């Protein structure tokens, strides 16, 4: 299969674990074979397992590239939008990308999937059926529809012409009221899970670009519109493959706690009276719950949420108001955590993965001091290269170019002192 | 009045805000004239207001001396036990101390008060009545009794012979069951709030020591027993002064939240559905509560508590199990917070008050690096004195003697690297 995984979103619905730089697909809280894994790691691993020679391209925005490498390693194909527009431009760009990168022909089929559903292996078996149907070519676009388990108001519905395994689509319905949802289900409606397949040529023939570079360089000309609106709704000949297994949208606390293998993650103590309560504690301190019922507690360096499961679905407006800049971020080279923030000063703990390094850079308005906590590394400071290890201190005055490379896993405390400590005060240089 | 304020306890009932080094009387969460104040600050200030020329001595153990100076300043009389024994030795020691320090005579009256009741000015008016009764000398010991507002099981009861404003005590009763408590109240019983007065000579005549130094140097000979057991229960002639105003023992979360002026302290957001919920957030991050009812949330660098108010009374056994070493402590010179703890390394933020300094000291097994975040100071490093300010970095190898004095309020990040990072690895030197 040729799969474009859409990795978007920057939602606050799972605040404080999700934020502007950590979308929900990067939260490591699903039980995997070797510890906790993220939705991205889970889905990517599941595809690789079901179709080890398949082609996967992750379509995303610049802000997520580092985190994707952190989660999946360096050997992963990523198609990065030059700017955020909407799903139509993103899918078009990724289709050019996968065609050139994986040498696809006009007749080859591409499947587009969101990165964040909670599914089991039967889902990927159905993806293969979707792929076969698209290859047969009876329909211009083929969608996957999920058989509803309840009259949910959270999803769009697809109404097929009959109830066969593969059918033609009669119509699409927006997210409905409860009553409407029940009506759609009586008509044989299925949930639209955002999975669809088409032949490369089908989409590219709608577009004027001759190559990936061409569309990339003209990306700002593409309409800011959704693929649904621009392509699907205008297409008459759409097929549907039905799926009746596990499919969960775990975009809310209530849904996410539903798929947690255990009630707690991290340093958490629940007393005997606590019932149906889920706690995720990413902080380096104990968290004690007593007498709670139907509560979710989530603590990270960004903040602390304590909510009834019922109310947690309304988190978005609150999280948007209170959320500060992210205190923790995963990067391609490792991660950083802000451990203290003061007036014109900031203290950060940096963890570098072995053989990874920061970019060679300088700051105009702040001095920095590195103290190596553990590991061995190599510093490049204004052209001079030297080894550092545990206990070493490096002073980096403003305007000095600097980087550090981890020869083995490296931990550094960085104290920043200066005016306007902002991410934008950073000039990248060639080593 | 001559008042001995007993500042003891190291309870975990208010975990995570109270811990081994921060007893409940040091938690700053009562609304004062200029921001939040601690129970200690509140009671000390109340006494000073009601009796500005009175003598106050705080009887405490070594571990609290720094915190007391931090809360009340340097100009406060503290009687420090050489070791922790019980209330009988502590009160005996403090009586010698206040007699010598304040030039009291045998006939002068001393009042002993716990440091942590939540009271208003009428309480101190009654202390004056207690003082007058003790001066009159009709009784050998005079206690204050609080008129019960409910048949509480949490307090001992005092049964007086009649219901006059001042009476003779007939008997004492241990903390009773609900039924017993109701019976005592019918008999005219009052709560024993631990306040009592006696003449200096009354107590000192029971003891063989000739001076404060004498009792201090022989402190380990004193019986580890309570004042109640050793003195009060053996005394026949005890008087009682009754008090019918506000008196609250705020030693549990439920009681403490009862006297909070507002429902939240710190960076806290409550949604509209949250009811009768109190939140104290000492962390430097937002805390969001949604849909909660009758809940207490407390977050500090030591940990996070989320509990129903009902269950919070059973916190002690849990807190004792999970509590780690204190992450935050107030000292006479300022305060420190552990902001990161790793394997054989620790990062600390130190705040020094103006004109205060650390003791001149060295470590055998760890190196340290200071980076000054703000303020101006003077470092003494192995005999060499030099000025430091914002942005300066000082490397302190193991065995190097060092101190820093704040010329103005000073903030320093200290990175400790070494084996066995423990408080005991500290040698104090003369400057």
Structure description:
The structure is a homodimer of 431-residue chains. Chain A has 431 residues and is an alpha+beta fold. Chain A has helices at residues 39-50, 62-72, 87-101, 121-136, 178-186, 200-204, 212-217, 227-230, 253-258, 315-322, and strands spanning 2-6, 30-32, 35-37, 55-61, 77-81, 109-114, 117-119, 141-146, 157-160, 166-173, 190-199, 238-243, 247-249, 264-265, 268-270, 278-281, 287-290, 295-300, 303-308, 328-331, 334-342, 345-352, 361-362, 366-374, 376-381, 384-389, 393-396, 402-406, 410-418, 427-428. In chain A, the strands form eight sheets. Chain A has a six-stranded antiparallel beta sheet with strand order 20-21-22-29-24-27. A five-stranded mixed beta barrel of chain A has the order 8-11-9-10-12. Chain A has a four-stranded mixed beta sheet with strand order 14-16-18-19. The longest helix of chain A is centred in the first third of the chain and has 16 residues, at 121-136. The model of chain A has no long low-confidence stretch (mean pLDDT 93). The interface between A and B is large, with 62 and 62 residues.
Strand content of chain A is 35-45%
Biggest β-sheet of chain A: count, sense, barrel?
6 strands, antiparallel
Q: Could you name the ranges of chain A where pLDDT drops below 50 across 5 or more consecutive residues?
A: none
Distance between the termini of chain A: 40 Å
Radius of gyration of chain A: 24 Å
Sheet with the most strands: spatial strand order of chain A: 20-21-22-29-24-27
Give the count of helical stretches of chain A: 10
Helix/strand-derived category of chain A reads alpha+beta
What's the overall geometry of chain A?
globular
Number of strands of chain A: 30
Most extensive contact: A-B, 62 and 62 residues
> So what's the oligomer here?
homodimer
- Percent of residues in helices of chain A comes to 10-25%
């Amino acid at each position: 299969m040729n799969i474009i995984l859409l990795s978007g979103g920057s939602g606050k619905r799972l605040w404080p674990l999700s934020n502007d730089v950590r979308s929900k697909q990067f939260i490591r809280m699903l039980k995997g074979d070797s510890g906790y894994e993220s939705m991205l790691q889970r889905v990517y691993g599941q595809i690789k397992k079901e179709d080890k020679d398949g082609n996967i391209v992750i379509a995303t925005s610049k802000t997520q590239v580092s985190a994707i490498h952190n989660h999946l390693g360096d050997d992963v194909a990523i198609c990065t939008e030059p700017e955020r527009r909407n799903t139509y431009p993103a899918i078009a760009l990724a289709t050019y990308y996968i065609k050139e990168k994986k040498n696809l022909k006009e007749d080859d089929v591409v499947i587009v999937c969101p990165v964040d559903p909670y599914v089991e292996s039967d889902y990927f078996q159905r993806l293969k059926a979707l792929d076969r149907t698209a290859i047969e070519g009876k329909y211009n676009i083929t969608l996957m529809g999920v058989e509803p388990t309840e009259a949910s108001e959270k999803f769009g519905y697809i109404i097929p012409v009959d109830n066969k395994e593969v059918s033609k689509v009669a119509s699409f319905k927006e997210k409905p009221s409860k009553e409407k949802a029940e009506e759609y289900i009586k008509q044989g409606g299925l949930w639209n899970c955002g999975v669809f397949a088409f032949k490369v040529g089908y989409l590219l023939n709608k577009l004027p670009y001759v190559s990936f570079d061409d569309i990339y360089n003209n990306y700002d000309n593409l309409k800011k519109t959704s693929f649904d609106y621009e392509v699907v709704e205008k297409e008459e000949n759409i097929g549907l493959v039905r799926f009746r297994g596990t499919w969960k949208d775990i975009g809310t606390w209530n849904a996410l706690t539903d798929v947690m293998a255990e009630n707690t993650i991290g340093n958490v103590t629940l007393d005997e009276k606590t019932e149906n309560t889920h706690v995720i504690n990413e902080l380096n301190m104990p968290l004690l719950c007593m007498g709670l019922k139907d509560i979710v507690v989530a603590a990270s360096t960004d903040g602390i949420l304590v909510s009834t499961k019922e109310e947690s679905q309304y988190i978005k407006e609150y999280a948007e108001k209170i959320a500060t800049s992210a205190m923790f971020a995963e990067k391609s080279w490792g991660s950083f955590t802000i451990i203290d923030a003061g007036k014109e000063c900031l203290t950060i703990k940096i963890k570098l993965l072995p053989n990874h390094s920061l970019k060679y850079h300088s700051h105009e308005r702040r001095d920095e001091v590195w103290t190596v906590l553990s590991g061995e590394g190599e510093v490049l400071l204004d052209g001079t290269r030297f080894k550092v290890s545990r206990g070493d201190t490096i002073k980096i005055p403003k305007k000095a170019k600097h980087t550090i490379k981890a020869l083995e896993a490296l931990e550094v405390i960085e104290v920043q002192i200066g005016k306007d400590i902002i991410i934008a005060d950073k000039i990248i240089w060639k080593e």
